[in-house]
């Protein structure tokens, strides 16, 4: 795979697939610019070589064509400040405006195209649409690892129309760090899996059982495991149809000698809101009408002890409903433990995108762990052993 590091962009118009799917508030202000900051080295390399950058991305999930809420024009001013140049904006990603602006683009300049998903052809992987996009530049750079698991026009299909196909620094770093975890992990290796559903994580859990020493389970999926052990979970989130699957995972962990660690206590509430009444109960003893929303203090201590002794740590998924401050204590404590293991014990820590990345970044820990992935779903699929279309297109 060719990378940005060994490609000279002098005189080139680089068509760069970035992941600028950033959260905006009601005033269209960016509330988390992690994904934008991640692309800075790739874009700066293109410009410093004497090339120009044509940036393309999606934003949100627009259903019926162009909408104000999902317009990338809201990113023009912040991007201009980040890169120190006036970013030009095309009111469409294909068509006359985009074609004219791309044709006039000079070395050192940046052009941002309007939201790719304003066209349904993008997500359908339409070849004709991909070819129209491809005509805007003469080298394709894919730096959007977060969408690499999608066979969309801009993330995969475009590769057919370029001789020069290059992986950006984000793409390269994501793959390198995932490989480090999967193939070169130092022992003890601990994986921390959170989130609400076993069904979302089943493949990654099964694969990790062949690689890890410790598997910590937190978040909503623990209540399905509690059901599998005959526990009471009140009205906690669960997947009753996955109880047999949970039982089989428990047995597989035993057979493979993996230390499967579950919460020993839970913080539960009588309603799903931050100010609900709370109580801490032992695992499997949640009263009727109550629901588990976080791990309890004894679980925090147990998990922290395992993490402190680890040399490789993979974390994907929160320990509870971390959006509510009163139920974010467990997630924040795990973030703190991972940081300590990294800084004080020299552990390699990979935060697997999505909610875990948000939790770590919101706590100000983003630069205190080894690597924070920008792609939750893509990272999980890569670790499950699946071929990512966006990566395969660069290797073809």
From TrEMBL:
Coiled coil: none annotated. It is found in: Cytoplasm. It catalyses: (2R)-3-phosphoglycerate + ATP = (2R)-3-phospho-glyceroyl phosphate + ADP. It is an enzyme of class 2 (transferase). Keywords: ATP-binding, Cytoplasm, Glycolysis, Kinase, Nucleotide-binding, Transferase. GO terms for molecular function: phosphoglycerate kinase activity. Pathway: Carbohydrate degradation; glycolysis; pyruvate from D-glyceraldehyde 3-phosphate: step 2/5. InterPro entries: Phosphoglycerate_kinase (IPR001576), Phosphoglycerate_kinase_N (IPR015824), Phosphoglycerate_kinase_sf (IPR036043). ATP binds at residues 201, 292, 323, 353-356. Substrate binds at residues 19-21, 35, 58-61, 117, 150. Its EC number is 2.7.2.3. Belongs to the phosphoglycerate kinase family. HAMAP family: Phosphoglyc_kinase. Monomer. PANTHER family: PHOSPHOGLYCERATE KINASE, PHOSPHOGLYCERATE KINASE 1, CHLOROPLASTIC-RELATED. This is Phosphoglycerate kinase. The lineage of its organism: Bacteria, Pseudomonadati, Bacteroidota, Cytophagia, Cytophagales. The gene is pgk.
